[in-house]
Protein 1
Amino acid sequence: MGDVDAATIRAERSDWMKEHLAMYLDSGGAKGHIVDLSAIGGREMTTHCLIRYRGRKSGSTYIKPLIYGNVGGEIVIVASKGGADTHPEWYLNIVASKTIDVQIATQAFEATWREPEATERHDVWEYMCHLYPPYVSYQRSTSRHIPLVMLKAVRPLAVFTQTPD
């Protein structure tokens, strides 16, 4: 697929993603947590979280909705970028920090993060591909090893209420 094709997919979904984020934020998480992605190869009941992070270069705050899974009490997000050949900016910003803010439905928290390795990574990847089957084609379309990020809650936060900078 590469960066050009992945960029096309993101551009086509840009309005939808902005609307999804606004709905999630405006409702305090009561709406937007579960979304039907069957039209694009996903599941009818696909769970989404919000991540809030600071730009490592800009210092700006960003909020992004992402598909997530739960493995052994840890939240899992996938840095797929639609199969692009480069990592998503949110992933690079997380790697540059010790914690990240996460909201799931109406609950928000600060979380530490880690990346699973070896057998654990394989098992978590299989699980995430079951939750959102397009991840399989995303990985096939790039030589980049798509990162998995596992999040563990460390303290509660107020739900996200504003749009990013």
Protein 2
Amino acid sequence: MNHLLSIKELTQQQLIDLLALAKTIKANPEDYRKALDGKSVVMLFEKPSLRTRVSFDIGINKLGGHCLYLDQQNGALGKREPVSDFAANISCWADAIVARTFAHSTIEQLAEHGTVPVINALSDMYHPCQGLADFLTLAEQFDDVSKVKLAYVGDGNNVTHSLMYGAALLGAKMTVICPQGHFPDGKVVLEAQAIAEAHGGELVLSSDVEAIAGHDAIYTDTWISMGDKASLDEIKAKFAPYHVDTDMMNKAGAKFFMHCLPAYRGVEVAAEVVDGAGSLILQQAENRMHAQNAVLVTLLS
């Protein structure tokens, strides 16, 4: 590993090793107190964040490293000076770059023009750190993650892409259920299906909510991000059949509910589900830090 730009760039063994290391760091934090001793990480954020910023900042500190946060008050990277200059200059001082951007091409430029590892903390195409945290969370619930049947319901997006790649690499089954016109990127789907086939997994896409039957966990994400030019009422009308409630959980036979947050209760998910006994949302949030720390240790130590 030179960078973490997308889960698709990992081998199956690299993904398994990252999840194992994350478990180890979580269980034995004192053993890693100096893992990043003397290392500095710059965080470049075009977008606001709660979980990503806090989990990286505190996680780097727990590993004995130093974190510097830079927001982009003037908008996207590259407006004030080229992304290539950002990457080259930061590489003179820092040991790694964590970037949360609008365009994935910005992440790629940082990796191309910098000389230090780059970690994608979210782009329009991928959210690999979230995907790693999610599969770490599932690995804590199931002895064999390859046997997990995961259903994603709602708007196909960057989180969906990372989940598909992760499930495919691990050889698990994943079903993506979206309304027409809101499926994940077609190229990503084909790539993930090929990876799944190579590792004994399965990726199924459907618009039929009845395809939810026979899954261990249901994952959803906010619908708000896809509605920049639509009213909330229009979004609700189109996505209403994909609202995750107790009835859907029961139809699926799903024990667990997952969400990358922020969650809008009464919109994409019912309050009794997101706050219920089977909800893994806080474990997912906590595991962002442990998964990211595994990536940092792998790249920098």
